[in-house]
Specification:
alpha+beta; rod-shaped; two-stranded antiparallel sheet; 2 helices
């Protein structure tokens, strides 16, 4: 319960729950539930801070290539370079 001194009456105390609550609500940023973990996050967040998943497809970094794809590409490149210089 927030109690503060009323500006008009210095000797009286005012219980200002309604006034303080309204002021705090207007200062808070709007939140929405995360589509994955359902926790409340800021409306303009590109990523959920709890489950760390991207909210929209535009913000998504894209799928990572599996390690075997990268390894196969490097081995193929090595074989191609070796084949060019063996002659």
């Amino acid at each position: 319960m927030n109690v503060y001194r009323d500006q008009d009456h210095d000797d009286e105390w005012d219980d200002g729950d309604a006034d303080v609550g309204d002021a705090q609500d207007s200062d808070e940023e709007p939140t929405v539930p995360c589509p994955y973990c359902r926790r409340e996050i800021l409306e303009d967040s590109p990523r959920c801070p709890y489950c760390e998943r991207y909210i929209s497809a535009e913000d998504h970094a894209g799928p990572r290539k599996p390690g075997w794809v990268i390894a196969t590409a490097l081995v193929s490149l090595g074989v191609a370079i070796w084949w060019l210089f063996r002659v």
